[in-house]
Structures are given as structure tokens and as C-alpha cells.
Write a structure and sequence with these properties.
The chain is an alpha/beta fold and about 525 residues long. The protein is built from 12 helices and 20 strands. The chain folds into 3 domains: about 260 residues, Rossmann fold; about 120 residues, no CATH class; about 90 residues, no CATH class. The mean pLDDT is about 95.
């Protein structure tokens, strides 16, 4: 834009339109916090397939409920998961390499993450390099499969140096690239003693040194110690960003659904403390909690009794399903495994969001449970006993198979009379809240007057109009479906003096047709006039 006009003629100036597009956030990125056999501890890792999970966290483990939940999540339509490993008291396998004459400690080799898995790691060293003063390092993971020892992972690092100033410094090169080990220098410059003349080509286990020592998985699920340390590990610390609070570190990404399958195996007190903390955390993150019931709850009467005694766990950002599910256990194909349904339902949520939208209840004949079946077959009367309590049924129907047959939040008991009775209504609200929260940050520090309010109405209104056109709201017209209000009525002069701008957004949610009533009337027949 010219600062001054000096010559007669036509001047072109570009004027900002004031349009700042608000993009809808994700709706079904799911977080899993649990024990796993390997992987980073108290660090949220984004995975997009079960293959990713196997590479980073070791795949299925009989002690890890969430490993099966994650498998079910991807099988049922999930696409993005955030995985947090908790392993209280776990210790990494280590090995000290020595070299020189007399022998001195040169490099400490530790498994990349704590756990007994590190005992399967082996390290080999040779000096077969073109330049003297360098060495080669091979790290491999060897496991027993079908009674035979097999190398399942291998990493080779050539021409490493012990000099801290070298571009091939062993500690720097290996620590940056390796997914198996981390090195720590011991201050010595002597090369590690060779374990073989050509370890790169060797297949003999005698040419390698095994990591081991005091490696442990810590307090694992099923142990007595887990009942005490488990709740603390799952909840974690906000200050230290451990446990579920490790998810604070995924910014600018968000998660929408939280699953804590291991909580179902805790004591009653431990389960209550974890769920209470998780519901508060989900409230702060505008996320939704899928709660698993203990494996001991396997009858209708027990479920009703459990829910009655745990009414304090009711929350608008949570849902519970009954009964638990049976799935094939790929670690032992001759057996079925009893699992909580949270991972399966998280996948169903994701699939429904992708095909129909977050405003569609993740229930009905198209909400089939893939690779899973309820451990108990419920009939209509059974369903009618738990539905008014805000407990969602998992049913088996002829032709349709195993499906989700409930769409209520834990705040959805009939006696609650809550406006957040239904899962799609609550999740739609969370979606709108988070999208507007992310999309209106540009408003901060803008001049608080009518031009700003008009921009807010324009941008928020465009976002809501797009949802209306997708069928997210009730009403035949936009006026019936939603409103965006930001003017001198919502923001008074006192608000302006305090630096506040108030935006009021309302919407008419779609509520699921939970009860379909068909009325039949018999006609008397034709009457001549």
C-alpha cells in the first residue's frame, strides 16, 4: 500500500477480508495409558497402525490389557492413537564394554527403554575398519520362536570413533539412530575390546555379549505391587508430565477419547481414584472417557449392583458398556481372551465419525463389533434393565451380529434428566468447543469493539453453517439450527474495561431415535356413502 499519493493516476490497495477460517479439530484420536513390555516411559507416542505399535511397544502382551485394546481399536476403524507406557520401578538392561591395556571401562550400553525385553539384546564389536583407531558395533535382538533362536532386529554401525570431537563419535552416532540401545561414554578413549574378528558377518551367539543385569519390568499388572503403584502410575503427575498427564506434551495435537484398560484390574479404591482423576482430566481437555468394568462383573445383577455402588463415577464426559467382550488371543490361537470393550468401542466411535459424523450415535446395526463378541447374551428385558441407568448394552442380533446397542453417557440415567444424556450430543459439543477454542485464538489482543465482534460473528458463523450443511443440527433453516452472538449485549462496557469479549454460540443438537414407536390401527373397511 503506498504511503503517499504523488502522481495523478489509479492506485491499487489490497484490503484484508477479515475471514479467518475455523477448521474442525479431530474427533476420534484415542489415548491409551497402560503397562507395555517395552517402549518409552511416560512419553506419548503417536501411532497410526498396529504395526507401529508392535515396532515401538512390542505388540501383544498377556499382562497388558491395552495392547489388546489397541489391536481392537485399529481393527474396528481407529486411525490415530496416542500411547503412553507406564512402568513403575522398571529397570533397563545394561552392559559395560571395556578396552585398552590394562582394561578400563569405555562405553556403557543400556537398552533404549526399561524392561526385561532388554535381556534379549546382544552387542558385538570388531576392529575391521580401513582406518585404524575406529571400530564397528552391531546390536541385535534375539528371541526364541518355536524353540529356535532368531534375530528379529539388528543394527550395524561402522567406523565409530571414541573421540568426542569426531563426526563419527560412537555415543552421538548410535544414540541418534538406534531404537534398541543408548550409549554413555566413560571418559576413556580406548577402543572397546573386539568380541569377534568380523562381528558384522557373524551369526554365532558366542561372538556377542548379552545385556542383562538387573533389568526388570517393575510393578506389572497382576502383581500385588501393582494394586498399590498402579493408580499412581496411571494418574501420574501434572508437574512431571507422567501417567495420563504425559498427554500434555502432544501439543499442538489433541486427543479426543481416553482409554485406561488396566484400571479395571485395580482394587475398588484404585479404580475409583483413577476414574475420578481421568474424568477431571478429560473435562479439562474436552475429551471423552470410555470406562471398562472389572472382569469379575459378568452377570446382569452384578453390573446393576456395581453401577449403583459407583454412582459417584457418573460424568457427562464418560460412558460405560456391558458386558465385556471375548476376542481371539493371537498369542494363543486356541484361546479366547476376556477384554474390556473400551478399545473396541473407540474404534467404533472413530469409524462412525468418519462415515457419518460425530453427531451420529456410535450405536445401531452399522456399529458392528469386529473381531469381538459379548461374553453374555442380553435380551430386550435385560437391555431395558440397564439402559435407564445409563449403561450401554453390547448385543448380539441375528443377521446383524455383534453390535453396540446404546448411546448414553454416564450422566444419561433417566433420573438424572441431564441435557448431556446422549453420547453424540456431548461429543458434538466438545467438538464445537475445541474447534472454536483453537480457531479463535487470533482474537486475543485485538481491539475490542464492533469491527472485532463482526469478524467473530462472520468466522464462527461460517463454521457453524458448514456443520449445518453437513446435517449436524436440528432445524430446516440456519436460524432454527444455531446462532452466534457477539455484540454490545454480550459484551458490556464493563467487560471491555476488563479486557473481556463474550461470544455466545448455541446449537440444536440431533438426538438419537432411541425408542422407535410404531402405531398400527385396523381400518373398518369401506363404508358406502
Amino acid at each position: 500500500m503506498p504511503g503517499t499519493y504523488t502522481y495523478p493516476g489509479v492506485y491499487i490497495e489490497e484490503i484484508p477480508s477479515g475471514v479467518r477460517t475455523i477448521t474442525g479439530v479431530s474427533t476420534s484420536d484415542t489415548a491409551f495409558v497402560d503397562f507395555f513390555a517395552r517402549g518409552p516411559v511416560n512419553q506419548a507416542v503417536r501411532i497410526t497402525s498396529f504395526g507401529d505399535f508392535e515396532r515401538v511397544f512390542g505388540g501383544l502382551d498377556g499382562r497388558s490389557e491395552a495392547s489388546y485394546a489397541i489391536q481392537q481399536f485399529f481393527l474396528n476403524g481407529g486411525s490415530v492413537a496416542w500411547v503412553v507406557r507406564v512402568a513403575p520401578g522398571a529397570v533397563a538392561a545394561t552392559l559395560m564394554l571395556q578396552g585398552g591395556s590394562p582394561l578400563v571401562n569405555t562405553l556403557s550400553v543400556a537398552a533404549a527403554s526399561p524392561g526385561l525385553w532388554g535381556n534379549n539384546l546382544q552387542v558385538g564389536v570388531d576392529h575391521n575398519t580401513r582406518t585404524t583407531g575406529l571400530f564397528n558395533l552391531v546390536v541385535r535382538e534375539v528371541v526364541t520362536v518355536g524353540g529356535r533362536r532368531q534375530v528379529v532386529n539388528s543394527e550395524t554401525y561402522r567406523n565409530l570413533s571414541m573421540s568426542t570431537g569426531s563426526s563419527r563419535n560412537a555415543v552421538s552416532v548410535v544414540n541418534e539412530a538406534s531404537s534398541l540401545v543408548q550409549l554413555t561414554g566413560q571418559g576413556a578413549t580406548a577402543l572397546p575390546t573386539p568380541t569377534a574378528t568380523d562381528v558384522v558377518a557373524s551369526t554365532s551367539e558366542t561372538d556377542f555379549l548379552a545385556l542383562g543385569g538387573s533389568a526388570s519390568d517393575g510393578d506389572t499388572p497382576g502383581s500385588t505391587a501393582w494394586l498399590t503403584s498402579g493408580p499412581t502410575a496411571l494418574i501420574g503427575s501434572e508437574a512431571a508430565r507422567t501417567g495420563m498427564h504425559a498427554l500434555d506434551g502432544i501439543v499442538p495435537f489433541i486427543f479426543n477419547i481416553l482409554c485406561l484398560p488396566a484400571a479395571a484390574g485395580l482394587s475398588a479404591t484404585g479404580l475409583t481414584s483413577v476414574v475420578t482423576a481421568a474424568e477431571a482430566y478429560c473435562e479439562s481437555k474436552r475429551a471423552f472417557l470410555l470406562l471398562d468394568i472389572p472382569a469379575s462383573i459378568d452377570t446382569l445383577a452384578e453390573m446393576i449392583s456395581w453401577m449403583t455402588s459407583n454412582d459417584g463415577l457418573r460424568h457427562r464426559n464418560a460412558a460405560v458398556y456391558f458386558p465385556r467382550l471375548e476376542i481371539p488371543d493371537l498369542r494363543n490361537e486356541s484361546r479366547l481372551r476376556d477384554v474390556g470393550p473400551s478399545g473396541t468401542l473407540a474404534g467404533v466411535f472413530a469409524r462412525t465419525d468418519a462415515t457419518r459424523g460425530v453427531w451420529k450415535a456410535p450405536a445401531g446395526t452399522d456399529a458392528d463389533l469386529r473381531g469381538a463378541a459379548p461374553i453374555l447374551k442380553l435380551n430386550d428385558l435385560d437391555n431395558g434393565a440397564i439402559n435407564p441407568l445409563g449403561i450401554n448394552a453390547l448385543r448380539n442380533f441375528p443377521i446383524f451380529g455383534n453390535i453396540s446397542w446404546g448411546g448414553r453417557t454416564l450422566d444419561g440415567a433417566d433420573q438424572q434428566a441431564s441435557e448431556w444424556k446422549y453420547i453424540p450430543v456431548r461429543r458434538t459439543a466438545l467438538y464445537i468447543e475445541e474447534s472454536l477454542y483453537q480457531g479463535l485464538k487470533w482474537v486475543v489482543f485485538e481491539p475490542n469493539d464492533e469491527p472485532l465482534w463482526a469478524q467473530i460473528r462472520l468466522n464462527a458463523g461460517a463454521f457453524m453453517q458448514n456443520l449445518f450443511r453437513q446435517g449436524a443440527f436440528q432445524g430446516a433453516t440456519p436460524r432454527d439450527a444455531y446462532f452466534v452472538k457477539c455484540d454490545k449485549e454480550t459484551t458490556t462496557q464493563n467487560d471491555i474495561n476488563l479486557g473481556i469479549v463474550n461470544i455466545v454460540v448455541g446449537f440444536a443438537p440431533l438426538k438419537p431415535a432411541e425408542f422407535v414407536v410404531i402405531k398400527l390401527q385396523q381400518m373398518a373397511g369401506q363404508v358406502a356413502v
